[in-house]
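ENCODED BACKBONE
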Amino acid sequence: MIETLITSRKNEMISHAAKLLSGAAARREQGAFLCEGARLCADAAKSGMQIQKAFYTAHAAEKYSSYLSKIREKAENVYEIAPHIAPLLSDTKQPQGIFCVCTLPCESEQTETFLQTKASGCVVALEEIQDPANLGTVLRTAEALGEKAVLLCGKGCDPYSPKVLRGSMGAVFRLPMISIPNFAEAAPLLKKCGWTLWAAVPDSDVLAVTKADFSKPSVMAVGNEGNGLSKETIALCQPVTIPMLGRAESLNASASAAILLWEMMRGGASRE
């Protein structure tokens, strides 16, 4: 593999890669996303992501040689970049100097397959989650607790944004992301596949999640940071709540999801 040195800030490949940081629309247009950092890029390679291009600085090659060797094995093309190029590809204040352009997984295929597969285990359905930090944390937690997939419902933040990628600690590469425009419309299909649908609500009058029966395949719907779940979604699910002993009325999305998913795992759905 011939590794070319890129020194120009106006290089076309660098411009295209940098554009992937601008938003979800640019990522969809190119069918790719940009991940940054030695460990995260090596994780992408190890997890089987298709790496179109890898970029590294000479300093990074020396400091992170073990990570870079894993990336080189999987990348289709590898380029050394001059130090002044790295900030163009970075979403952090102090870039490590390793970047990968990866192919976006086909969302439509993943969604179609999921909605036609017999239910098994447990999954979380996130309805219009807006905070990338929350989404990243939920994905990391979901993978750690044995989730089969994550349903991304409505118009939430992009799971392939830089902040989500970092927050998920590579979970994005391994968890199937099921894109569902409207949870309420998908609910009949989910039930047909054998899923029991639950909705997390801040209502002390409904069933406590600690008393819910998660022995059957379960989907737990969690709402967005400001408004919670839609009325339509709640109406199609069995509502549960997290018992609150203090004065706080609710928890943020990532904290709620962690507790809910732990109870699902403890209840048996993820051990099928």
Residues 208 and 242 are 6 Å apart (CA to CA). The mean pLDDT is 91. The first helix runs from residue 12 to 19. The chain has two domains: 4-103, 107-271.
